[in-house]
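Notes from the 1:1 (GR / supervisor)

We went over the backlog. Supervisor wanted to see one worked example end to end before approving the batch request, so GR pasted a single chain during the call. The sequence is below; no edits were made to it. Supervisor asked that the structure be written out right there so they could see what the output format looks like.
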Amino acid sequence: MAELILKHDWSDSLGPIEEWPAALRSALSICLNSSFPTAIYWGPEMRLLYNDSWAPIPAERHPWALGKPAAEVWSDIWDVVGPQFRQVMTTGEGVTTYDQLLIMDRNGVPTEGYWNYSLSSIRDEHGNIVGIFNQGNETTAAVLARRQTQAEIARLGRLFAQAPAAIAILEGPSHTFKLVNPAYEDLVQRSNLLGRSVEEALPEVKDQGFIHLLDTVYASNEPYQGKAVPVEFMRADGERQGRYVDFVFQPITDTAGQPSGIFIQASDVTEATTAMAALRESEQRFEAIVNSIDQMIWSTRPDGYHDYFNQRWYEYTGVSKGFTDGSEWENVFHP
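Structure output shown during the call:
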């Protein structure tokens, strides 16, 4: 850029370079020797000078933009930056903005872009404001990446909210609720969990050993899986309600591999567990009844397979349990 500036015809704008004021020469020296994108807007018309790092910013307007008034160079975004430039030139008060949306024309197409930049006043030896010192860089990629990340987080949040299983994410060694879905709130019969520790929000689970279990998972970085585990939750009326749950406590680690939280997934299996318990009890009662009868009892499927014999059968035949299942019972009578 130094060569372009030297070769540029300044006769109709800033005048011969050798007559430029000391303040402009000093600011331009800083600008050209900076590795950061830097520009200078000089004089009442805010004529533009810039360094090599700043040259890609105006895109196809480079090198045409060199020496042009700011309002002409940035006509497409002057409604945004114009007031900022005038503020600096009239008051000397600087402007700093982050991720500023600027819709610039790129090859004739309005294009969304985001920018970090600062505008600072340049003063001459008498303290008068004579120009603007500008540094900045484009942040479009970072902004769009954050937007995509936020959209993905929102999507995952919707998936968590809609998941039939109870899901919660705990943070830190105190096991603070960072995320819970409605199914989890239904399971524990509690809301307003976020930002509270498990011990604070669900004090009834401490004596049941779950806080100790969470501590162990967090410290060891090893997951824990429970099947049909009995747990009692406090209802709104103060009464405890027993449930059976299948659950997983899965440790979460940070980028350094250190523990940072615990992912919880749980399912209420109370109905299935109680049904299985009732079935076992029914089977036990059946066994007690048929084994209390003095006669031999067996059952046969439609295909002729013998699938049950009571205790009297085994006492009478002397064979081991299961030996006469199927068609093998015939061997007892027809060796």
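Supervisor's comment: The chain has a mean pLDDT of 89.
Batch request approved.
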